[in-house]
Amino acid sequence: MSDGEVFPVPKAWAQKAHMDAAGYEAAVAEVETNPDAFWTKVAGRLDWMTPFTQVKDVSFEKEDFHIRWFADGVLNVSVNCLDRHIAERGDQPAILWESDDGLMARFTYREALAEVCRIANVLKAKGVKKGDRVTIYLPMIPAAAFCMLACARIGAIHSVIFGGFSPDSIAGRIQDCDSRIVITADEGLRGGKIVPLKRNVDEALKSCPQVTDVIVVRRTKADVPMTEGRDAFLPDLKQGVSDVCEPEPMNAEDPLFILYTSGSTGKPKGVLHTTGGYLAWAAYTHELVFDYRPGEVFWCTADVGWVTGHSYVVYGPLANAGTSLMFEGVPNYPDHSRFWEVIDKYKVEIFYTAPTAIRALMREGDEPVLKTSRKSLRLLGTVGEPINPEAWLWYHRVVGEGRCPIVDTYWQTETGACLASPLPGAHPTKPGSCAKPMPGVKFQLVEADGAVITGAASGNLCITDSWPGQMRTVYGDDQRFFDTYFSTYPGKYFTGDGCRRDEDGYYWITGRVDDVINVSGHRLGTAEIESALVGNENVAEAAVVGYPHDIKGQGVYAYVTLKADVHPTDILEAELKGWVRREIGPFAAPDVVQFAPGLPKTRSGKIMRRILRKIAENDLGNLGDTTTLADPAVVEDLVKNRHGA
Ligand code: WT7
């Protein structure tokens, strides 16, 4: 197979980057020959209160399963992200903020530290202690980063929930980690529209009686209902509070945060990351992949409600003494030049976004890009889903004027930070490939039965050894952690992704091989959407699959069987889409609802998703063997009534 154009490493990059091709080979070799020395350097970039003497202590084997890194070291994440930069860079902006409505704010390291300490003291006054879980449901405002760091300062575990999630989703996450305290805002503002954050929290808390305190950040200053004795505005709580707060000494393996993510089955998993390994990995990859130097203006467009926002809006850039731009808005408001105008306004040097945004903007033509300068840009990045070569080339030629390398970064919520990406000074780029694993990350392709694949071929992507940013468990469910990631291929971490390796040893992620779909870079479990659908009184059964979507990457295709006396109507179709919006969040709403008198099942009652996927993809010549179906006629009906058929 030909992989199309290859873009060489520009000479200036090879000369100046943190890591060139030889440096990459040397690092990969050192991981083999002297792993402790290699990993000690990776973690040595952090300031430790008590230096670690143990490095890696890991077994993926069932009998002795454990993952520990730098386990006797003691540190504090907020000190590493703030205090240690004050002497040299106290007046440098740590966070720049562009609001939805075009206002600008900046916080220097000194100001950020003071604010984080105040919030930390507010939390302490509320009785929050080391190990307590704090739920954060905020818009993309600097306070979100400050609240995360305030938790880290006192050793509380934050659980950030993306502002697009519904009250039901919030409640499930609060209950799962038994969080007693919630930080939210009066309202959010996105694309000129109000997001009723406080109202959503109020709704969620009807089923979370354990929550004693709700801290409300002022964003729009709208009048919102406040529950006496439970709710308070942050500005009021901060009155007279000290801007000094002693950092809690944390063991490297103490939890830093929980972040809920969708899996192929069951309710969302609380992915748990710890202190030392996570921060070291976020900082190391941020420096290497983006060839980052302190003070450069770095813009990652991800929301802090997703892992990308955790690692590359907050923790990675701040650990590296960076200037991180937070953006509250959306790419198409007030018009399609917004991203590029913001780049000019803040002289952004490194820009990191999702393929879905690139595809949506590409559709608007070159003009909205070309009317801006973008001359500050020197590097572009993508994350979250495979990027089609057409979008990659447009990003490279039009946005980056052919002068900015593109780093296609592949990773997962579970992996803490980047797993694979071209390094701009080391690897020629190929549109659509995430190139090579980070030094220390050991990829392996296997057949479905586990047989190891070598050379240029496709298979399921596993990782054979640990890296410091690896998740440590599913909160409260060690067994589920092991079963989900380490039982399919014993002794290995299974990513859930399919992948091809080419003749140059480059990796090409082909997408999930489980029942997880990726809609506009948002990860969704089909089982979750199905469970929302069957919660509707009209629905008897539902099966959800992904299908290729020009802009979103994948769209949500729902097959729905109605209860016996319910008739399929357009109104009901719209109602079900709205239902999922409200139950999970707007981004999970089905693009297509197809009413089906029956679903294709095996004689043992298992839904044959393979067939449903083919029909949704309109790959009708390829339905495969349908003879094992309990009722083959079901498929004929599905094909005949296919949406767009
Ligand atoms: C899944 C993880 C990466 C953090 C944000 C998403 C897909 C991610 C790429 C990429 C192809 C990618 C994978 C992965 N994915 N990055 N560069 N190329 N696919 O994290 O929500 O945990 O989703 O996103 O399928 O498993 P997430």
UniProtKB/TrEMBL annotation:
EC number(s) stated in the UniProt entry for this protein: 6.2.1.1
Modified-residue entries (N6-acetyllysine), positions: K606
Acetyl-coenzyme A synthetase N-terminal domain segment(s): 24-81
Keywords associated with the record: Acetylation, ATP-binding, Ligase, Magnesium, Metal-binding, Nucleotide-binding
Short name of one Pfam family: AMP-binding_C
Cofactor or coenzyme needed: Mg(2+)
Binding site for Mg(2+): V534, V539
Residues annotated as domain AMP-binding enzyme C-terminal: 528-606
Class of enzymatic activity (EC top level): ligase
Protein family (similarity comment): Belongs to the ATP-dependent AMP-binding enzyme family.
Purpose of the protein: Catalyzes the conversion of acetate into acetyl-CoA (AcCoA), an essential intermediate at the junction of anabolic and catabolic pathways. AcsA undergoes a two-step reaction. In the first half reaction, AcsA combines acetate with ATP to form acetyl-adenylate (AcAMP) intermediate. In the second half reaction, it can then transfer the acetyl group from AcAMP to the sulfhydryl group of CoA, forming the product AcCoA.
Protein name (record): Acetyl-coenzyme A synthetase
Gene that this sequence comes from: acsA
